[in-house]
Amino acid sequence: MAGTFITFEGPDGAGKTSVLTALMPELAPHLAQAVRLTREPGGAAISEQIRQVILDPQNGAMDARTEALLYAASRRQHLAEVIQPALARGEVVICDRFVDSSVAYQGAGRGIGEEAVLAMNQFATAGLTPALTLYLDVPSAVGLARIQAHRTGQYDRLDQEQLAFHERVRAAYLRLAQAHPDRIVTIDATQSMTTVVAACLAQLHRFFGSTWQA
């Protein structure tokens, strides 16, 4: 495809959404292509409906494999409706979470198997892999403390998980980063927001190289 697919990953409390909100206005002037920011689960109307089912705290009886399949279904619709058309138009697509999240959260966090979840998502995505992934890393206890400190709404299903769950998720992310150093760049998200945003911008500058506009 003509476009470029970039993902941002991180455990709960890493600050991905806040970093992306601050980063996007700084990034766009440096790229000749249109830049599209999207998210998972969600990003398209049907995918957003699936997101509501996944995260609804009333769905506590949801089986772990059901959850993984719903994430994959949401991802497939998002890919078909939003990501692939944007890439075909030559856009830079930046996605808040993608397959790595499912491998970490459902594969490791839920304990249903990282390879099994990866295989499921390879089917859902037809093997689409990001060109670059920026992984914002934060210790699980720090991330959960941040969430508690800034909470304004109700808990969703993932927020209700204990520290051990989030530690399994982070460990899986670190394994992914070690296994794919050509794609995944780890950024210390315990630093200030300004520092993290600057680090992300520097990595994107390095990635785009000579096409980066001053």
Structural write-up:
This protein starts with a strand and ends in a 6-residue tail after the last helix. The longest helix has 25 residues, at 64-88. It is globular. The protein has helices at residues 16-27, 45-55, 64-88, 99-109, 114-125, 140-150, 163-179, 193-208, and strands at 4-9, 35-39, 92-96, 132-137, 184-188. Helices cover 54% and strands 13% of the residues. It has 214 residues and is α/β, with parallel strands linked by helices. Strands 2-3-1-4-5 form a five-stranded parallel sheet, with helices on both faces. The protein has a single domain (4-209), classed as 3-Layer(aba) Sandwich (Rossmann fold). It contains eight helices and five strands. ATP binds at residues 10-17. Belongs to the thymidylate kinase family. Phosphorylation of dTMP to form dTDP in both de novo and salvage pathways of dTTP synthesis.
Features:
transferase; nucleotide-binding; 214 residues; nucleotide biosynthesis; Thymidylate_kin-like_dom; ATP-binding; Rossmann fold
Question: Which SSEs are present, and which pair or pack?
Answer:
Elements: E1 4-9, H1 16-27, E2 35-39, H2 45-55, H3 64-88, E3 92-96, H4 99-109, H5 114-125, E4 132-137, H6 140-150, H7 163-179, E5 184-188, H8 193-208
Parallel strand pairs: 1-3, 1-4, 2-3, 4-5
Helix pairs in contact: 1-8, 2-3, 3-4, 3-5, 4-5, 4-7
